[in-house]
């Protein structure tokens, strides 16, 4: 079980998502999982976010990264709650 769960809520920001993932990769602390919750209600953005996450996972197989796609736009608070519910870490933080 990871010590920390990092919840990343995203909405129409696929470029910024890649920067966020690269930032997590650069951390010295490594005992964490990343839960990305895509709150896009638009199929085109879902595809873009999925492509960013898939590429990152291929490049960094040692990192625990989970992508959750909301079935509809649920807003930032509910999206973060979904990430919290999926978390397995002892501690939870947001990025």
Give a written overview of the molecule:
With 95 residues, this protein is an alpha/beta fold. It is built from three helices and four strands; from the N terminus they run βαβαβαβ. The chain is globular and about 35 Å long. Helices cover 42% and strands 25% of the residues. The chain has helices at 14-25, 43-59, 76-86; strands spanning 4-10, 32-38, 64-69, 91-94. Strand 2, helix 2 (43-59) and strand 3 form a beta-alpha-beta unit. The longest helix is centred in the middle third of the chain and has 17 residues, at 43-59.
Structural class assignment: alpha/beta
Helix content: 40-55%
> What quaternary form is this?
single chain
What ranges have pLDDT less than 50 throughout 5 or more consecutive residues?
A: none
What distance lies between the first and last C-alpha atoms, to the nearest angstrom?
20 Å
- Secondary structure: number of strands: 4
Separate helix tally: 3
Q: How many whole angstroms does the radius of gyration measure?
A: 12 Å
Let me know the average pLDDT.
95
Form type: globular
String of helices and strands: EHEHEHE
Please indicate the percent range of residues in DSSP E strands (runs of 2 or more).
25-35%
Strand order of the largest sheet: 3-2-1-4
Biggest beta sheet summary: 4 strands, parallel
